[in-house]
Amino acid sequence: MAESLMFTKARKLAPKIVILSDFIRKRYGEKDMTNQLKRSATSIGANLAEAHYAESTADLLHKQKIALKEANETKYWLEVLYESGYLAEADYKGASGAVEEIIKIVAKSVSTLSKRSS
């Protein structure tokens, strides 16, 4: 599969979030939010991988919209974990910055695809 920039960034983010989530879970015993964070972060790349083999433009757009929603959810959980004292500022800034990049790229792609399919 030829990797798009958004997929590459999502693919690089996923293991970092898995490691970060596991660290928080082991250090603080926090399970609920870290499970949600891990689920949403890994779902971004999974949906973009599915989008690579979309059956139609509508299917491609749908998968990218789901990835965008998951990226926004990931950003939310990072914010909550940071504000709750589970995430160090450097970890928060690094992870949230990476998620913001993905959000911008996917949002632009969704916007472009939406205009083309209208």
TrEMBL record:
Pfam families listed in its UniProt record: 23S_rRNA_IVP
Gene3D superfamilies in the cross-refs: 23S rRNA-intervening sequence
Superkingdom of the source species: Bacteria
Protein name listed in UniProt: Four helix bundle protein
Biological source species: Ruminococcus difficilis
